[in-house]
Design brief:
Largest sheet: 8 strands, mixed
Structural class: little secondary structure
Protein name: LRC18 protein
Number of strands: 10
CATH topology of one domain: Leucine-rich repeat, LRR (right-handed beta-alpha superhelix)
Order of helices and strands: HEEEEEEEHEEHEH
CATH superfamily of one domain: Ribonuclease Inhibitor
InterPro entries: Leu-rich_rpt, Leu-rich_rpt_typical-subtyp, LRR_dom_sf, LRR_domain-containing
Strand content: 5-15%
Shape: elongated
Keywords: Leucine-rich repeat, Repeat
CATH architecture of one domain: Alpha-Beta Horseshoe
Organism: Rhadina sibilatrix
Distance between the termini: 85 Å
């Protein structure tokens, strides 16, 4: 077995990294190394540690080293769709971070360091599609959070401190075994209900609407032939029944 387990991945050179720097719409410099087949954090990018945004998503990263602390200007960090099962304590030194995407990794509750709560400027945190069974109550100290993604985990409880975050606007907890979402599904009503019925004369319908209504009436007559019922029902031979929205669109189908 060769030294070092797991995939080696693509080797990123400083030249490749420099050519991957882009200016985002917001004017920030973004180092975009997404979808590069990287399995090991490339140390050469420390030469570009002054960027404001770093995208390492859709790679094969198993670990983020503590040297991430060199990126003190980072405001935006995307690590989604890797193989991470834990975060380094140094993540808490990125005090300017407002966006952190950790979706679709292998993070466990144990893999979330306490230092994560030092990101006091964080506004968006995505922890969806991981292996979390609980959420640390200390996440309630991230009082600037506006968006929090917790979907597709194994959570059975959301701490009150997290639920009551003062600025939270969107919290996605879908597809977790939470008791409040274990309500019995309502039965599906397969019968179409009509709230209103409008009657019009045949002469007021265009040809296509008339054909449609006559077709539906023929279908009803077929049902009447196999369903017993009273024989003294009233008949309105000069009237037909368009759908319930016909009155709203009558100017379109009324014959001129």
């Amino acid at each position: 077995m060769p030294k070092g387990k797991g995939p080696q991945g693509k080797r990123i050179t400083l030249k490749v990294a420099k050519n991957s720097v882009r200016v985002a719409f917001n004017g920030r410099r973004r180092l975009d190394l997404s979808k590069m087949g990287i399995a090991t954090f490339p140390k050469c990018i420390l030469e570009l540690a002054d960027v404001e945004e770093l995208d390492l998503s859709r790679n094969m990263l198993r670990k983020i080293p503590n040297i991430i602390e060199k990126f003190q200007n980072l405001m935006w960090l995307d690590l989604h769709s890797n193989q991470l099962d834990e975060l380094p304590a140094a993540i808490g030194t990125l005090k300017n971070l407002t966006y952190l995407n950790l979706c679709n990794n292998k993070l466990t509750t144990k893999g979330l360091p306490e230092e994560l709560t030092r990101l006091r400027n964080l506004r968006t945190l995505n922890l969806g599609l991981n292996c979390l069974e609980t959420i640390p109550t200390t996440l309630g100290t991230l009082r600037e959070l506006i968006e929090l993604g917790l979907f597709d985990n194994s959570l059975t409880l959301i701490p009150k401190s997290v639920k009551k975050l003062p600025k939270i606007e969107r919290m996605n907890v879908k597809r977790n075994p939470l008791p409040e979402f274990a309500k019995e599904e309502e039965p599906i009503d397969t019968v179409k209900r009509i709230e209103s019925l409008y009657l019009v004369e045949k002469k007021d319908l265009c040809n296509s609407c008339l054909e449609m209504c006559q077709g539906e009436r023929d279908e009803l007559h077929k049902l009447e032939d196999v369903t017993p019922g009273p024989s003294n029902k009233p008949s309105f031979p000069s009237l037909t029944t368009p759908n319930s929205t016909a009155i709203d669109n009558q100017e379109e189908w009324r014959m001129k």
